Amino acid sequence: MTDKPMNVESFNLDHTKVKAPYVRLADIKTGEHGDTIYKYDMRICQPNQDHMEMPALHSLEHLMAELSRNHSDKVVDISPMGCQTGFYVAMINHDDYDGVLELLEATLKDVLVADEVPACNEMQCGWAASHSLEGAQQIARDVLAKRGEWSQVFA
After folding, report:
1. Distance between CA 77 and CA 91 in Å, rounded?
2. Residue 1: pLDDT band by 50, 70, 90 thresholds?
């Protein structure tokens, strides 16, 4: 590990000191026309101890990407982390942390009652065979069960 700060914010985060699940503001970028992007780290699994299995993560990504937009037009993107421990949630012109927590809670509750994974077919998805609605719903249940802990990032 180097003392020089890295360009990627999360590479500067000590992953041994965090306690998942949590949601933290990871970055803020302001565009030349005044729009501001707020990037949140929605950590679901404890880094280097647990991870989401790919079919469940993939389905949760589809579900959250689609269903979150029923609650806010400020969602820019919900992207899975390559380490399979969480998602990045990008919002435009929305700096209300509690509002983001409410959005994520409502979205995960929607996941629990979903009867299918949106866009889970070869025409709309790049790996349609890799999905698990039941797995996504189990992750949502587990994360919602710890809703009171989401704002506590460090152990």
Report:
1. 7
2. low
* Closest to 43 (Cα-Cα) out of 10, 4, 104, 86: 86
Q: Cα(103)–Cα(70) distance, rounded to whole angstroms?
A: 9
Are the beta carbons of 75 and 91 closer than 8 angstroms? Answer: yes
Orientation angle between helical segments 97-113 and 54-68, nearest 10 degrees = 120
pTM over 0.90: yes
Domain ranges of the chain: 14-148
User: Which CATH superfamily groups domain 14-148?
Assistant: S-ribosylhomocysteinase (LuxS) (3.30.1360.80)
Q: Is 58 assigned a ligand-binding role in the annotation?
A: yes
Residue 121 CA from chain centroid, whole number: 22
> 38: helix, coil or strand?
strand
Q: In whole numbers, what is the pLDDT of the chain averaged over residues?
A: 97
pLDDT of 2 > 80? The answer is no
Instruction: Note the helical H segments in the chain.
Output: 54-68, 97-113, 133-145
- Establish whether 62 is an annotated binding residue: yes
- What is the tens place of the pLDDT at every residue in 17-28? 999 999 999 999
